[in-house]
Design the sequence.
């Protein structure tokens, strides 16, 4: 059996960072990653170790329009000599539907289905993107808070209270995970997993939901991610300095929820960046053939964004 770890989280929660942390001391010969990004172009594939075998699925969410492509990827992965599969869904993917797909596949065993939650944005996302954010929280066997260092203790308690109300069974990690070893964190992630072995892939989705003991009241909306979110990819034909890039990103309109990418500099390395709701992380890494910026948001104004980025 191939153990499956689903690492979900709304836009900008830190999924790629966590997976890299979990794999940094691991022999990657028997490990693969399915990496799904919303939109035609992705960035995350370039942010993992070159030793890690990655299957990228873009142009939508593997939980909805690309469900068939996920099944094809799993059929392909069966032929490889691996024992561990990580799945990083799109930040706007529904964890419930991905779990149903995995539970109906032979040769794959659910090891963990976790969600990362940006503590600074959790209440806002719960209010404004309830259908997508809440689905991830409700279905997780473990919730890992990120950005907890950036909020006051009373705000953290408010976030934990809200998450516990959505999912009273999930373990909630409120301290930074980087202070514990990767193996210990993986063991914690595996606790409380709903395997639903009774169904053996033969039950309906309604019966599977019942077996997992989750309240899916919020699923009545049934919106696909591309009904709510839009994606835009740009390829700036210019160089950036770090300070300039930061100032440009801060000018992005509020409806840009997520942006990441890499741009050329006058140095022998590219500038990589991650942006989520006015929060920016910038670092230098290997040179790419061309610059690429991917943005996700609501009703993005392509002309305005191009003008801001001068791309």
Sequence:
């Amino acid at each position: 059996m191939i153990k499956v770890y689903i690492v979900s989280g709304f836009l900008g929660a830190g999924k790629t960072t966590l997976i890299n942390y979990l794999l940094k001391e691991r022999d990657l010969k028997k490990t693969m990653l399915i990496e799904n990004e919303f939109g035609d172009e992705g960035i995350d594939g370039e942010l993992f170790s070159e030793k890690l075998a990655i299957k990228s699925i873009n142009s939508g969410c593997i939980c909805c329009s690309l469900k068939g492509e996920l099944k094809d990827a799993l059929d392909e992965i069966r032929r490889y000599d691996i024992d561990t599969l990580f799945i990083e869904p799109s930040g706007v993917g529904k964890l419930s539907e991905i779990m149903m797909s995995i539970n109906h596949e032979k040769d794959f065993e659910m090891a963990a289905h976790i969600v990362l939650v940006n503590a600074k944005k959790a209440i806002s996302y719960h209010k404004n993107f309830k259908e997508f954010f809440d689905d991830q929280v409700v279905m997780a066997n473990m919730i890992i808070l990120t950005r907890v260092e950036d909020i006051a203790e009373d705000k953290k308690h408010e976030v934990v209270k809200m998450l516990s109300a959505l999912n009273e069974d999930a373990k909630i990690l409120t301290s930074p995970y980087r202070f514990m070893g990767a193996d210990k964190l993986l063991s914690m992630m595996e606790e409380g997993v709903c395997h639903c072995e009774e169904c053996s892939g033969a039950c309906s989705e309604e019966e599977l939901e019942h077996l997992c003991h989750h309240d899916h009241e919020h699923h009545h909306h049934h919106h696909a991610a591309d009904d709510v979110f839009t994606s835009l990819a740009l390829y700036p034909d210019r160089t950036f300095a770090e300070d300039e890039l930061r100032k440009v990103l801060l000018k992005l309109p509020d409806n840009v929820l997520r942006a990441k990418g890499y741009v050329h500099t006058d140095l022998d390395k590219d500038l990589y960046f991650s942006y989520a709701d006015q929060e920016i992380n910038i670092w230098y890494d290997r040179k790419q053939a061309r610059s690429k910026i991917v943005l996700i948001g609501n009703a993005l104004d392509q002309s305005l964004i191009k003008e801001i980025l001068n791309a």
Q: What stands out?
A: Confidence is low (pLDDT under 50) at residues 196-221. The first strand starts at residue 2 and ends at 9.
